Amino acid sequence: MKKSDRFVLKTGLIALVAGLLGGGIAYGGASLLQSTGVDVAVPAGSNAGGTASTSNLKVNVQSQSEKAYQAVKNSVVSVINLKSTSSSSFDSMLGKSSSKLEANSEGSGVIYKKSGNAAYIVTNNHVVSGASAIQVLLSNGKQLEAKVVGTDSVTDLAVLKINGSMIKSVASFGNSDNIKVGETSLAIGSPLGSAYASSLTQGIISAKKREVPLTGSNGQATGNTATVIQTDTAINPGNSGGPLINLAGQVIGINSMKLASDSEGTSVEGIGFAIPSNEVVKIINQLVKNGKIERPALGIQYVDLTNIAVSQQKSILKLPSSVENGVVVYTVTKNSPAENAGLKKYDVIVELAGKKISSQDEVKNILYSQKLGTTVSVKYYRDGKLKTGTIKLTESTSQLKINQ
Question: Can you tell which superkingdom this protein's organism belongs to (predicted)?
Answer without folding.
Answer: Bacteria
